[in-house]
Amino acid sequence: KSEKIWLTLSFGMIMGFMILTGYQAFALGMGTPSGQTTLDPQKVDQTAPFDKPGVTQIGENEYEVVMTLQIFSFTPNKLEFPAGSTVHFKLTSKDVVHGFEVAGTNLNAMVMPGYVQEITQKFDKPGDYLVLCNEYCGAGHQLMSTTITVK
Ligand code: CUA
What we know:
The protein is α+β, with helices and mostly antiparallel strands. Helices cover about 20% and strands about 40% of the residues. It folds into two domains: about 1-30; about 35-150, Cupredoxins -  blue copper proteins (Immunoglobulin-like). The protein contains one helix and ten strands; from the N terminus they run αββββββββββ. The strands form two sheets. Strands 1, 2, 3, 5 and 8 form a five-stranded mixed sheet that branches. A five-stranded mixed sheet has the order 4-10-9-6-7. The radius of gyration is 18 Å and the shape is globular. The structure holds dinuclear copper ion. Dinuclear copper ion (CUA) binds near residues 98, 135, 137 and 144.
């Protein structure tokens, strides 16, 4: 019966997709690249560059973002870049494990206390990009979000 074949096929595709996204989450989020810098999570505020979280323009279409994550917010909150910008993120957590996921991009990283997570993303399309914490971090986890505006 052809229905059965289609059912099997679509089931197979869903499974394939799940394996793929699972792998991506693993490769992007869980992977702790060797050579990742460490810092004392108790002293984030006194440790450069996290003593001055913010955005610095480092090239013609290039920016560096130094950001701390803490229950239940991102510092700095609200980022804005011109379209076509390449943005280098340096992230760390001040308390528990958080996630840094930017909807509409491949950005999806785990941000752990004691580690500096470095990721780069180019933003070509103008718009508001929703930034979410995708690791459960406590009662306010659902509220932990911000936006990146590209224009
Ligand atoms: Cu931070 Cu969930």
